[in-house]
Known about the structure:
Elements: H1 19-33, E1 40-41, H2 53-66, H3 82-94, E2 104-107, H4 110-116, E3 125-130, H5 134-142, E4 146-151, E5 170-175, H6 187-200, E6 203-207, H7 228-231, E7 232-237, H8 239-242, E8 250-253, E9 259-260, E10 263-264, H9 265-276, H10 282-292, H11 294-321, E11 325-327, E12 333-337, H12 344-355, E13 357-358, E14 360-361, E15 372-376, H13 381-394
Parallel strand pairs: 1-13, 3-4, 3-5, 5-6, 6-7
Antiparallel strand pairs: 2-8, 7-8, 9-10, 11-12, 12-15, 14-15
Amino acid sequence: MDLKINTNVHFGDVAESYLFSDVAKKVKAHAALHPDDRIIRLGIGDVTLPLAPTVVAAMERAVREMGKKETFRGYAPEYGYDFLREAISRRYADAGVDVPSSEIYASDGAKCDCGNIVDIFGDNEILIPDPVYPVYLDSNVMAGRRVTLLPTGRGTDFLPTPDGLSGEGYIIYLCSPGNPTGAAFGRDALGAWIDFASRTGSLIIYDSAYEAFVTDGSPRSVYEIEGARECAVEICSLSKSAGFTGTRCGWCVIPHTVSAGGVPLYRLWERRQATKFNGVPYVVQRGAEAALSPEGRAESMENVRYYAKNAETIAGLLRDRGIYFTGAKNSPYVWMECPHGMGSWEFFDLLLSRAAVVGTPGAGFGKCGEGYFRLTGFGSAEATAEAVSRLAEIL
Ligand code: PLP
């Protein structure tokens, strides 16, 4: 039966995403034709190592509390328990950044926050870098917002700049270190965006989901830059820093100093969350608190270093062959130029057929990703080393 209701017409404007299903189809077809090939997947965007022992122990304790009448807890506070908000605030303080716990809103991950924050804005011009993590674009298109893509490329090592922008009142999505490019803003480049936002009354939505991978002194938080407390919100996650992709915990920072039209943004976010969100599970929040403790951080950082080392193994080969790439240094991602001017999918097919290695075609992340390719360090060290020796044969 066809109903007489109207659906959200903007869903028709969202580009279908065939990227990962097309990749899966091609891999399946290859496996059927070559059953003896040991296929290595370097396209993974998910962590593969287990939670840190400190995190597991904290969650076990919390589960036992939930099983006793005296310590049972019902609905969690919408913005997170104080113990977690304070642990996140301490994590910022340890990095020399002052973010009071009252400005931190716990969530079930960065993807939800990136999508949900659209609710609190009206009609604005939205600036989104290309190539990009697709959630920023799709969630704005679904809401019928006006999106302008900021093309990036080799000239700026895939980092967007405000050069040439003349309008005002933009909402600007920035991600550093970026997915898929792995490129991280240095202090000056991020400072240029904060200056631009301050001058033009624009808001920056800063996704720092990969901050734990920064090793070269680049900012790990937008609040390391002066002026950001007036014009930036930050969305972060324990997914990549502590292996929480399946456990789900992140947070959003909305400084009380950011307002628009006289309305502080945090009030709108609090209203939104109190209406549509019922909090992160207690057990998960205890796990997250443990992940942010000194022991939890030390244990999780071993995993981060493991992934980073894999990325560096891939980068080493590219450097050796003189192939341009970004990432690896501050990221689990290596974003490489396809050799000999090949297209993203052409290179995908070549890698799969000649080396049985799977990566992700850059064209799937935006027009400017055509001709580029994403490999990740999230596999095992052994598989990564094997993939690199196979790649060495064909690059
Ligand atoms: N932001 C970026 C840039 C990502 O690449 C991802 C996941 O891959 C996320 C956010 C999602 O994080 P979460 O697992 O916290 O939802």
